[in-house]
Amino acid sequence: AAPLFGIMYGSRDKNGIVRAYKESLRLAMIVFGICAALILSCSPLLAKVYDMQGVTDFYIGLAVCVLVYLPLTALVRINTQLFEAMEKPVMGFMYSCIPDSVIFPILLALLLPVLGYNGMWIAYSLNAIPFMLALYLIRSVKNKTLKLSFDRIFCLDKEIRDKVPKIDISISSDNRDVT
């Protein structure tokens, strides 16, 4: 997705960025849906490999990670690529580091004593949600509204937000161009 985001950003094509983002999410959900189905169908085999047959926490953790973590990971990775392609490396860095390095340990410290191993799975799977909610709230306060457009959420430059690209494809009919 990153090269396509970069091309659309370079041509200042807001609609192209939005289409590429939506298509990236759609394709990621299809791929992760297939992966989730395969992993869940192999859960008895995985439990045997890890010697966890009959351990309920293993099956709960596997289901939570596959059904929650995979889609959230896709969202985080696509957002990271989008920000990096739009020359906003700090936002990309924040998306790639903060959920796993900052929020996960905090959630782990809160949930592990209460829920045991299930708290670990939940903390690991949901660590992107508090981060994205915090960013959304910061953007909402900055823009003085809770209803944010794609442009505002993804920090699109004003020149991109306001510009609707016009494509001019023309072929010269002058015979001087033919040699």
Give a verbal description of the structure.
This protein has 179 residues and is mainly alpha-helical. 76% of the residues lie in helices and 0% in strands. It contains 9 helices and no strands. It has helices spanning 2-10, 14-41, 43-49, 56-85, 89-115, 117-126, 128-143, 150-153, 158-162. Helix 1 (2-10) packs antiparallel against helix 2. The longest helix is centred in the middle third of the chain and has 30 residues, at 56-85. The radius of gyration is 22 Å and the shape is globular. The model has no long low-confidence stretch (mean pLDDT 82).
Q: What is the strand content?
A: under 5%
Give the biggest sheet. Answer: none
**Anisotropy-based shape:** globular
| Low-confidence residue ranges | none
**SSE pattern, N- to C-terminal:** HHHHHHHHH
Question: What is the CA–CA distance across the termini?
Answer: 40 Å
Q: Provide the gyration radius in Å.
A: 22 Å
Individual helix count? 9
Strand tally is: 0
Mean pLDDT: 82
Q: Which oligomeric form is depicted?
A: single chain
Helix content: over 70%
* Class derived from helix and strand content: mainly alpha
